[in-house]
Write a structure and sequence with these properties.
821 residues; 33 helices; single chain; alpha+beta; 10% strand; 6-stranded mixed beta sheet; 3-stranded antiparallel beta sheet; membrane; elongated; 13 strands; protein transport; GAE_dom; golgi apparatus; AP-1 complex subunit gamma
């Protein structure tokens, strides 16, 4: 049989193929020749054939028929055969195939071979694809090589030990004696792999972590020698001595110093030296600085050192490299909760990143900007964020609008500013806002009595300019229906009043009814507004005519409203003025009755305590009831609704819809057909009497944050603030972060408290918790505790992670005393 072609010739031949079919033909022909050679047990060219087979495997062609030939090469006495055999085993075999167990004895023999290079091949293969069975059998040989004086073998044995520990964690203690002298080695390769081994052991075992904390001074000395050493051509990278080893040592120091005062104190000085002496002109230096920053922020470092770390991140924001800017923004986002003031110093640089062309940097800058908003900078930050909202891509508008709403609700300096800000958002990005923005703004306007004339005038002007933004049109229609008399009378004091006639106002509302841009919901708002104006304007006959026209509308909802309004004009005309009078201020009174309401990220589910007799209508309601049942029967207080549905009621009562269709007796609210705007008892709200007061005071600084939940990579932290002027209200902000490598989607946070408390959940910032701590989901909880009892809470978390639904329950009883006393 002729000698097979060499690997180099095969590569050259395959590269001459002009088409995929031609290449496949060449590969198939060569595979057939290799198979024939294998069948004939040709020992002379087995090594060459396996090498060619590995090249084909790298190109994506099947090469499984060469697995046993790899084992034969490993068993050979020639180094060249062993080298190809071990390479083939690493590429073609894994622990899912039983064939790999056949090589255990060969590896054991080679680990005791007299030639270091053969031992190195065996260590590499075991560290690459060794199964748990192989690791158990060969761990003793690896541990023996870890103690040898040969640095070439020690570094390979250390990496092999890392693989053994990952596969069989209970073998960790076997390697403990061998680690004693690893850090005293002068060879950088051994030092590097030793640090990797120590890091793996510390991460997997708390006992090992305590044991190795005594090595902190030695690690600090090694790192100091690296920084202070002169030029060494063997280890120099862009003027920095062995940056790879420096990064590894910094990571190990981070693990050892976490939650330990003594270890953190021992490494403070060296971290300061690294942070100040590292050259930043090259990417190598930036990598070390970034790792230093992470270490400083993760250990119990001094406050000055933390400020230095944040200043380094601030310098990163000025770097021309987009990756460095992105890393800086992500890191600042993680630290903003703990070092808020230090991050605030870089606010202008962060805001400048909103103008970056890179969408990833824009998104991180937007999230960080919202995290920096507080009562002192709310006006300036909102100005920048609203400018960003005007010019940003559509993919950012929804998140940006949501963030502006939350920030304005939390830190608004005045009612007028709050109304102006939300109207600006509706004007520029109305199509992207969440559904609850319309009822929330209507509630805000209703409770701001002194702003009614100003608001209706602003909204009327906005309506004349643009009717394409449906949320804006809906709010405008509602306000014109409620306060149309103030618009026509020109009673606005905040700005110059405009002269508008009744017919002009009705023309605008009728135009909305016939516009192709109007949705059915918007038409319902417009028709209801026109109906309300029948008690505020003198043009009753014109209004009657408009309403009667829509009594035959093809839109069933609109038709039903029109028919009921016609009945008001005819049969119940004597009741019309009372039914259509102006909506009262939405009083925030206490609840009466045993109704339980579970709020799920802003959506409220009513239920009665005896849930077993209720029909199983929807799954969310059942889940809510399950959570409430955890606190035991009637010992649960209602959660108060803040997110109001915008869907028109089937009976035409639009104003009752805006109250949320809440039932105070346990059953669904029934809206009377001919009474679209009857004043009803309002649902309870927590922040009674806060309409003209700042929402929070400064006493919250004394309440420490707490971790309420930490499991499976999901971490829920609570931060606390006090409502002003009611000291019985605690405002809790949850921060949900995710340390896993995959996003947690469809995230829902639910909570329940005993009946002596009242609980109110606001809408979350998002329903996706980003992976690797690259962002957080925030949500505000308000708890009324009039009796100053110790706070208890049950929480239910549901989300989807890596395609699988996850659900968990937890009880939170360790609230700081300052939060409820």
């Amino acid at each position: 049989m002729p000698a097979p072609i060499r690997l180099r010739e095969l590569i050259r031949t395959i590269r001459t193929a002009r088409t995929q079919a031609e290449e496949r033909e060449m590969i198939q022909k060569e595979c057939a020749a290799i198979r024939s050679s294998f069948r004939e047990e040709d020992n002379t060219y087995r090594c060459r054939n396996v090498a060619k087979l590995l090249y084909m495997h790298m190109l994506g062609y099947p090469a499984h028929f060469g697995q046993l030939e790899c084992l034969k090469l490993i068993a050979s006495q020639k180094f060249t055969d062993k080298r190809i055999g071990y390479l083939g085993a690493m590429l073609l075999l894994d622990e899912r195939q039983d064939v790999h167990l056949l090589m255990t004895n060969c590896i054991k023999n080679d680990l005791n071979h007299s030639t270091q290079y053969v031992q190195g091949l065996a260590l590499c293969t075991l560290g690459c694809m060794g199964s748990s069975e192989m690791c158990r059998d060969l761990a003793g040989e690896v541990e023996k090589l870890l103690k040898t004086s040969n640095s070439y073998l020690r570094k390979k044995a250390a990496l092999c030990a890392v693989h053994v520990i990952r596969k069989v964690p209970e073998l960790m203690e076997m390697f403990l004696p061998a680690t004693k002298n690893l850090l005293s080695e002068k060879n950088h390769g051994v030092l590097h792999t030793s640090v990797v081994l120590l890091t793996e052991m510390c991460e997997r075992s708390p006992d090992m972590l305590l044991h190795f904390r005594k090595l902190v001074p030695q690690l600090v000395r090694i790192l100091k020698n690296l920084i202070m050493s002169g030029y060494s051509p063997e280890h120099d990278v862009s003027g920095i001595s062995d940056p790879f080893l420096q990064v590894r040592i910094l990571r190990l120091l981070r693990i050892l110093g976490r939650s330990d005062d003594d270890s953190s104190e021992a490494m403070n000085d060296i971290l300061a030296q690294v942070a100040t002496n590292t050259e930043t002109s090259k990417n190598v230096g930036n990598a070390i600085l970034y790792e230093t920053v992470l270490t400083i922020m993760d250990i119990k470092s001094e406050s000055g050192l933390r400020v230095l770390a944040i200043n380094i991140l601030g310098r990163f924001l000025l770097n021309n490299d987009k990756n460095i800017r992105y890393v800086a923004l992500t890191s600042l986002l993680k630290t903003v909760q703990t070092d808020h003031n230090a991050v605030q110093r870089h606010r202008s640089t962060i805001v400048d990143c909103l103008k970056d062309l890179d969408v990833s940097i824009k998104r991180r800058a937007m999230e960080l900007s919202f995290a920096l908003v507080n009562g002192n900078n709310i006006r300036g930050m909102m100005k920048e964020l609203l400018y960003f909202l005007d010019s940003c891509d559509p993919e950012f508008k929804a998140d940006c609008a949501s963030g502006v709403f939350l920030a304005a609700e939390k830190y608004a300096p005045s009612k007028r500013w709050h109304i102006d800000t939300i109207m600006r958002v509706l004007t520029t990005a109305g199509s992207y806002v969440r559904d609850d923005s319309v009822p929330n703004l209507i509630q805000l306007i209703t409770n701001s009595v002194e702003m009614h004339a100003y608001t209706v005038q602003r909204l009327y002007k906005a309506l004349l300019d643009d009717i394409s933004q449906q949320p804006l049109v809906q709010v405008s229609s509602w306000c014109i229906g409620e306060y149309g008399d103030l618009l026509v009378s020109g009673q606005c004091e905040e700005e110059e009043p405009i002269q508008v006639t009744e017919d002009e106002v009705l023309d605008v509302l009728e135009g909305l009814l016939v516009s192709n841009l109007s949705t059915p919901v918007t038409r319902g708002y417009s028709l209801t507004a026109i109906m309300k104006l029948s008690t505020r304007f003198s043009s009753v006959n014109r209004i009657k005519k408009v309403v009667s026209i829509y009594g035959s509308s093809i839109d069933v909802e609109l038709q039903q409203r029109a028919v009921e309004y016609n009945a008001l004009f005819k049969k119940y005309d004597h009741m019309r003025p009372a039914l259509l009078e102006r909506m009262p201020i939405m009083e925030k009174t206490a609840s009466n009755g045993p109704t339980e309401i579970m709020q799920t990220n802003g959506e409220t589910e009513p239920s009665v305590p005896d849930t077993k007799h209720l029909p199983l209508v929807t799954q969310p309601a059942n889940q809510a009831n399950d959570l409430l049942d955890l606190l035991g029967g009637n010992d649960v207080m209602p959660v108060i609704q803040t997110t109001l549905p915008t869907k028109p009621a089937s009976a035409g009562g639009e104003l009752l819809d805006l109250l949320g269709d809440l039932s105070l007796t346990g059953g669904p609210t029934v809206v009377p057909a001919p009474a679209p705007s009857v004043p009803v008892s309002q649902p309870p709200f927590l922040l009674d009497g806060l309409s003209s007061q700042p929402l929070f005071n400064d006493t919250s600084a004394a309440i420490p944050p707490m971790t309420a939940y930490s499991k499976n990579g999901l971490k829920i932290e609570f931060t606390f603030e006090r409502a002003n002027p009611n000291p019985n209200i605690a405002v809790i902000t949850i921060h949900a972060t995710n340390t896993t490598e995959a996003d947690m989607t469809e995230f829902v946070f639910q909570a329940a408290v005993p009946k002596t408390f009242q609980l109110q959940l606001l809408s979350p910032s998002s329903n996706i918790v980003p992976a690797l701590n690259q962002g957080s989901v925030t949500q505000v909880i308000r708890v009324l505790n009039p009796q100053k009892q110790q706070l208890r809470m049950r929480v239910k978390l549901t989300y989807t992670h890596k395609g699988s639904p996850v659900q968990d329950l937890a009880e939170v009883n360790n609230f700081p005393p300052q939060s409820w006393q």
